[in-house]
């Protein structure tokens, strides 16, 4: 079985979806596949175009999750029943700290510089307090 049959799919996945650089691929496949061969596969397979599309899709997903979290938070703030609060907290918990920081901008009385210094646990406490009214 040739190198391409053995390693091309894995190299493509690592580069396109896992964010590996050429040098990282070279280190990963050291002794098995040369950088020249990896570059050839990358060029023939249009990996850069595929990587760009994958990054755009990932950004779209992040945007959708952020929008869903905003909807859940608004619903919980407008009508703070336990089910809506739970839905809001569960959605926010899936967002990651950077996106959560953006959402926390809606919380009154917290200057931007103070929010940047908060730990994730502190941010969740602020949000929980806001939701519980």
Short description:
The chain has 133 residues and is an all-alpha fold.
Model description:
The protein is mainly α and 133 residues long. It is built from 8 helices and no strands. It has helices at 3-16, 22-28, 35-44, 47-78, 82-93, 97-104, 112-117, 120-132. Helix 4 (47-78) packs antiparallel against helix 5. It starts with a helix and ends with a helix.
Give the topology.
Blueprint: H1 3-16, H2 22-28, H3 35-44, H4 47-78, H5 82-93, H6 97-104, H7 112-117, H8 120-132
Helix pairs in contact: 4-5
Described by the principal axes of the CA atoms, the overall outline is: elongated
By DSSP, the count of extended strands is 0
Task: Report the mean per-residue pLDDT as an integer.
Answer: 79
Contiguous uncertain segments of 5+ residues: 106-113
Biggest pleated-sheet summary = none
Q: What share of the residues lie within helices?
A: over 70%
H-E order: HHHHHHHH
Strand content: under 5%
Annotation keywords:
133 residues; 77% helix
């Amino acid at each position: 079985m040739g190198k391409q049959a053995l390693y091309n799919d894995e190299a493509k996945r690592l580069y396109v979806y896992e964010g590996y650089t050429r040098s990282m691929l070279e280190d990963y496949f050291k002794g098995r596949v040369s950088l020249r061969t990896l570059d050839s596969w990358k060029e023939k397979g249009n990996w850069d175009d595929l990587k760009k599309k994958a990054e755009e899709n990932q950004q779209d997903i992040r945007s959708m999750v952020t929008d869903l979290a905003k909807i859940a938070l608004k619903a919980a703030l407008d009508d703070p029943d336990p089910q809506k609060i739970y839905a809001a907290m569960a959605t926010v918990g899936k967002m990651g700290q950077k996106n959560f920081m953006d959402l926390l901008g809606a919380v009154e009385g917290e200057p931007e510089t103070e929010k940047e210094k908060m730990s994730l646990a502190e941010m969740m406490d602020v949000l929980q307090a806001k939701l519980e009214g």
